[in-house]
Amino acid sequence: MKKIILSVVAVLSFLTASQAQGWFRQPTPNDTLRSTVILPDNSVVFQIYAPKAESVAVTGDLPWNNPVKFVKEGNGVWKGRLADMKDGVYRYRFLVDGISVYDPKAPEAGETSALLTIDPDEDGFFAMKNVPHGAVAERYYWSETLGQMRRLHVWTPAGYEKSEDCLPVLYLVHGGGDTDKSWPSVGAAGLILDNLMAEGKMQPMVVVMPNGTIEVPGGDMMAEVPLFAKDMITSIIPFVEDNYRVYADQKHRAMAGLSMGGMETLEVVLNNPEMFSYVWVLSSSFAPGNQDVYEYERIRLKKESDRYNRNFKQLVFTQGGPSDIAYNNCKQTLALFDEAAINYEYMDVSGGHSWEAWRQNLYELAQRIFK
Predict the structure, then answer these.
(1) Residue 46: beta bridge partners?
(2) Which range is least confidently modeled, 121-130, 150-159, 311-320, 346-355?
(3) What is residue 219's DSSP assignment?
(4) For domain 119-368, is the CATH number 3.40.50.1820?
(5) Lowest-pLDDT range, 71-75, 123-127, 195-199, 342-346?
(6) Cα–Cα distance, 19 to 204 (Å, whole number)
(7) Does domain 12-110 have CATH number 3.40.190.150?
(8) Range of lowest pLDDT (27-31, 113-117, 125-129, 289-293)
(9) Hey, where are the domains in the chain?
């Protein structure tokens, strides 16, 4: 019998080809709208873009004796002001034509979605089973590179708290537009790792899921790659090794990333091969369509081939088959590795450029590293 579980979790869906078409739509006031604006007198202006709505209100932990009156402006933005707010933290939702709506412009809105889990046999590799479960912790660290507090998630295996053993570390990165909440939620990383540990199929390890998404001027996603790579070396790895009982040497470090996270993984490990023994690149490549980057990498790979072959115990590229939107770009990237005589493995799984493929990738790689 099919088991269908509907739950609300934090997750930002990956960028698909159909979504990419949205880049070419006509701009709207919603693109730059701030849904809440706190004024100097501690009053708050609530704003939501709802051009076809007949009524808008706001509800939540707000003063009931001071209802917010909304007015619709000509550009389709509804505005309402709430005066004399005290310092604090408040939950709120918009009511659009009587329907409760989570603020689509809230900072955490992109991480909030309903998650549908379908497990046909109730015993799949990412199913919730009656086994010892580890912990997924939300942690904050100071990024020297970005000059701000940043968040990451860390999975530790069942029993880690009572153990005195040091463990190896896998750094596992999400794709473009996602956040560090993606692997623990839609990626089902905790469940996959819990089940593998219970079945004795993987070595105990700590899995760190950092946030590879960085806001950059102009929204240039490729500009995020070197920034994240620097943050990994200068802040993320030192934070993990200072706060977790882990080994701090090359043979006990692995890194894997999907899509944009695969580009970030390549950026990190190719510049620091002496720091990692295991590297998995999932549905990714060098910067697609950028011939200058490919020529630079061609030269670098030839120059550093012996260094990479000497340091990487595993260098694995995977894709979701020919339907993966990164498929051709990856093949072009692998041609450069072939030309430089760099050792690597390649494999296809089902699913295209989707979490179906990447959950399979994690299931496979977790069983193979640190052995």
Answers:
(1) 36, 80
(2) 121-130
(3) G
(4) yes
(5) 123-127
(6) 38
(7) no
(8) 113-117
(9) 12-110, 119-368
